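Dear colleagues,

As part of the handover before I leave the project, I'm documenting each prediction I ran so the next person doesn't have to rerun anything. This entry is a single chain, and its sequence is reproduced below.
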Amino acid sequence: MRSSLWRFRFLPCVLLLAPACVADSALEPATSPPSLLGSPGGCTPQYLTSGILEPIRADGSSAFQLGRTVPVKIRIFDCVTGEGVNTLAPQIALALVDLGGGPVTELLSSSAADDGTTMRSAGDGQYIFNLSTKRSQFAVGGGDLRPGTYELTISSSGNFDDVVVRFAIRP
């Protein structure tokens, strides 16, 4: 009886990835879980993400001090195998969403390991970008970042659904 309870506790964890993965072919057997169907490219989008990872909270409640580095992290998985994917080049974009805001065009990292606005692979499907709130600049009128609410977008040319999150920068 104890082993049966274990199976029921484990099953919901397995199904978390399945609903986001849709088989491209109507010929796939309906009894197979979607995460196990087909071959690479058999799902749309081909990759799934964890969403934003700590220290940024997905609920928009995060606040960081101006002048500090904000580690931006996500994890990317293959839709079919569930394995971490380290071969993509996710891009980040940042915009101030408060009144008088706009896009941040000079988005800079505090790490020499980051290149432009491309997140770097840290292995096991995890990607990181060390966002500098001290060195990044606004597009319109130039100038340093200022306190306010920002929207961060992580994208990868249709490889996965965009990850969008808001956070605050305080003085």
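The mean pLDDT is 77. The longest helix spans residues 2-15.

All the best with the project,
I.
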